[in-house]
Amino acid sequence: MSSEGTYHHGDLRRAILTAALDVIATDGPAALSLRDLARRAGVSHAAPAHHFKDRTGLLTAIATEGYGLFADALAAAPDLQERGVRYVRFATEHPAHFQVMFQPDLYRTDAPDLLAAKARATEALTEGIAGLPASGRGEDPRLAGVAAWSLAHGFATLLLSGNLTGPTGEQHPEEVFRALTELLFVPASTVDE
Predict the structure, then answer these.
(1) Which of 121, 103, 115, 107 is nearest to 157 (CA)?
(2) pLDDT in tens, 11-58
(3) Among 53, 90, 95, 165, which is least packed, fewest CB within 10 Å?
């Protein structure tokens, strides 16, 4: 195992996660193979299984890491609009995590670390809704949360799949998202004027 580009020392778990994220970003989660990742790292085919047990375990680790990074990104935003911007930014900066996180059939949805990371992300989104004036939340704040999530997730998904290159032109995606939220969520007092 001394050929160039093989794994020699350090954090094998991180090296496998990084290689997996590269594969997912390029070819999607379906292309992921523990045997291929072991070959890329220059280790035995059993080495990845030592850290992740199986492909599902690896994808669970990716989703868990993704939700943790996502929660951190959302929590740092001052309001709901900026949480949406952070949502879009997270998707563009972590496309492989984003792909896996929102495909629960790929991973173990009951993994304790995953549940904790998802709860943190949900709490950060919920805090954004709670910060809206009562008129902006409507009668059911959960529906306001679904609306905000749908807008941010839909925009991020369209952006990652290349479907917004024409409509957004040369504008930065975060600025386009801000403009969309302002267009769709104009305060009622300015509409009546």
Answers:
(1) 103
(2) 889 989 999 999 999 999 999 999 999 888 888 888 888 899 999 999
(3) 165
Topology of 8-52 in CATH? Arc Repressor Mutant, subunit A (1.10.10)
CA atoms within 13 A on the CB side of 29: 21
| Six token digits for residue 144 | 């306001």
Q: pTM to 2 decimals?
A: 0.86
pLDDT of residue 139: 74
The domain limits of the chain are 8-52, 55-183
H or E element that contains 192: none
Long-range CB contact pairs, 178-181, < 8 A, 24+:
178/81, 178/85, 180/151, 180/155, 181/81, 181/84, 181/151
Q: Rounded to whole angstroms, what are the CA distances from 84 to 68, 78, 168? A: 17, 11, 17
Decide which of 3.40.190.150, 3.40.1160.10, 1.20.1560.10, 1.10.357.10 is the CATH code for 55-183: 1.10.357.10
Three-state DSSP state, 171: coil
What percent of the chain has a predicted confidence (pLDDT) above 70? 87
Q: How many residues does the chain have?
A: 193
